[in-house]
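INFO worker-7 received task bundle
INFO bundle size: 2
INFO processing item 0
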Amino acid sequence: MRHKPERSRRASDPDRLLGLYLNDHLAGAGAGVALLRRMTRSHADTAAGPRLTELAEAVTADRDSLREIMTALDVPLGHRRMLLGVLAEKAGRLKLNGRLISRSPLSDVLELEAVRVGVEGKKELWRALRILSRSDSRIDGEAMGRLLARAERQADVLETLRLTAVEGAFDTRAHRGPQGAPSRPHARTRGFAGWRPA
């Protein structure tokens, strides 16, 4: 009887695959935290600043929760993957946004979309772990449900901010005065072209 090669057995080992999966999400969470903190600094004096600060704190708490889950599951931290996540976030700063030095309204749109994609992925993570909690007592299924609900609230806030940023960046009416003359830039003072907290 032929035995599977060691490499093949390792590649199909559920614990190893779960470790890779969780470390990938941890790397993404680290990149999301870094991006939100940078956005918070950029909009510290705008109407959107407090909501971005709340989001950054919540996403940081989610990352810490994931680390605790990994500890409970005896999953070692993949420092190489975490470094790749940090480098990916830094590389995102080099994206084209129509301006060479200063921030562009397009930066807000692209960054909010990136964070929103990350939160959607995080929702799938909590769903997956809630399923695994049925057969693994080390995972608290009710806690996964609470984390999922929090991620859904984060996604709602991000979508509101994103749509307002889109309007501010692409709607020419938002940049013109009463007689059709270009109005003064106001993104720095009002935040996402006049976003108002709910």
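INFO item 0 finished
INFO processing item 1
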Amino acid sequence: MKELFTLLQKIKENPVMYIDKPSITCLDFFVGGYLGQLSDLGSTPEGDPMEGFDEWMQEIAETNLIKSWARIILFLFPGERNAFYKFFELFEKFIEQKDNSGIQGSEDVLRLRRDLMFPRFDIYKEILGAIKKRPGMYLGTSSITRLDMVLRGYSLARREVGVPPTEPEKEFEGFQSWVEEKYGINSGQSWSKIILFYTVDEHEALHKFFELFEEYLNRNKSLELDENCG
């Protein structure tokens, strides 16, 4: 998929623009959100370009443990930044070998994993509720940064395909400015970074996000009600 390769090159050259910083974990969840949404939209006719990469990395690491490619790279090359840049080198080698030998992973397993992580519905309307109940299932751990990366990848994929934003997606666009106003911050930091700054850790920040998001949605409903009554 040329789109992914082009996107990865852009992220490598300017990671701050897409995922805030050179981080293998942020890249992992951003790419997951991006590819998951493209798959749901039927825009991956050539298949998943990441297919088989997890298994390939397990062979590189000489381990039978079922771990994601990001976790394996981070283990082999400690440090989020170091692992981030190492990924591009490894992925290029993987693609070369895949083209030469026709490496294929289990399509059934990959399809099941995609369906579990990115069901075919609006991520802002329904999947946020699922993540709130079971963050570990969707994010691996309670992390507001991982949630942010998934949402960014999801939205970018939809924009690239030319899918108009849904009403819940449009509504979410105002969350950034609302958080800035609530905390009195106008520094250009993302909503996730602002919330994380005012909480103890990623876990508490994710919990706080859902509190704030519910408050934000209720506020919008109240404003709509006032406008209709007026």
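INFO item 1 finished
INFO post-check item 1: The longest helix spans residues 202-229.
INFO post-check item 1: Residues 158 and 165 are 8 Å apart (CA to CA).
INFO worker-7 idle
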